[in-house]
TrEMBL record:
The gene is murI. Pathway: Cell wall biogenesis; peptidoglycan biosynthesis. This is Glutamate racemase. Belongs to the aspartate/glutamate racemases family. It comes from Gracilibacillus kekensis. The keyword Isomerase applies. InterPro entries: Asp/Glu/hydantoin_racemase, Asp/Glu_race, Asp/Glu_racemase_AS_1, Asp/Glu_racemase_AS_2, Glu_race.
Length: 274
């Protein structure tokens, strides 16, 4: 039986990772779940993020996924270690791949990180970067206005540009910073605006490409890559507005997305999941 790759996110942002999986692993089927009803996760308490993440995970486990991709930086920061310990399938987060790409990119050794309040306060990127190179200087900034903007589909135009410009103003003072990590999978949807505001001297890093490459490597190592001839079958689930999700997914994946269903997640009260 053909088993799919499972992808979870707090909303539509993880589609930036899903699109890279589709591009790099065209034979693989993907099941995506975005918790758009309760997005954003960034301002939520750690315990709540863990609870919501487990609810998404349990739903995807019922679909017999062969690997899990946590395409949400906040969920990765709070749950990756626990999920790897408790699940029997490979689990891939987005923080380590993004950190590795940034280390490769920087020439000055000064790296910026933008993300949700939860991701920034967790210092997950700071720790990941310092584990690779203790001499790296990290400038991090929470951008709470970005995710609601993207979830509404406002990814261009004057309103979006002004929000990005106002938010990133404080990072402009660090003239030696040559690399900026998009520490939220929603942010690549406004990458063009971020790049415009930060200028051409700053390389903008999205973790989607590196994450997909890591998934490919892990599936290959475990001999779980699909070797058949059937076309990939992708299915998408959302806890929020199906029409909004459908529109954003079709635009981002650059293909018509038909298989979108709305679901209600069940509260999980298992030991160790709160």
């Amino acid at each position: 039986m053909r088993r799919p790759i499972g992808v979870i996110d707090s909303g539509v942002g993880g589609l930036t990772v899903a699109s890279e999986l589709v591009r790099q692993l065209p034979k693989e089927s993907i099941i995506y779940l975005g918790d758009t009803k309760r997005c954003p996760y960034g301002p939520r308490p750690k315990e709540e993020v863990i609870q919501y993440t487990w609810e998404m995970v349990d739903f995807l486990l019922s679909k017999d996924i062969k690997t899990l991709v946590i395409a949400c930086n906040t969920a990765t920061a709070f749950t990756l270690d626990q999920l790897r310990e408790e699940l029997s399938i490979p689990v891939v987060g987005v923080i380590q791949p993004g950190a590795r790409a940034a280390i490769t990119s920087t020439r000055t050794g000064e790296i910026g990180v933008i993300g949700t309040e939860g991701t920034i306060s967790s210092k997950a990127y700071v720790n990941a970067l310092k584990q690779i190179n203790t001499n790296i200087e990290v400038r991090d900034l929470a951008c709470p206005r970005f995710v609601p903007l993207v979830e509404k589909g406002i990814v261009s135009g004057e309103e979006a540009y002004n929000v990005v410009k106002e938010t990133l103003q404080s990072l402009k003072q660090f003239s030696n910073m040559d690399t900026l990590i998009l520490g939220c999978t929603h942010y690549p949807m406004i990458r063009h605006l971020i790049h415009e505001v930060m200028g051409t001297t700053v390389t903008v890093i999205s973790s989607g490409e590196e994450t997909a490459r890591e998934v490919s490597t892990i599936l290959g190592y475990h001999k779980k890559l699909y070797r058949g001839t059937n076309d990939a079958q992708h299915h998408f689930y959302t806890t929020g507005d199906v029409n909004v999700f459908h529109e954003i997914a079709s635009r981002w994946l650059e293909q018509k997305v038909d298989a979108v269903d709305k679901i209600e997640l069940n509260t999980v009260k298992s030991l160790g999941r709160t």
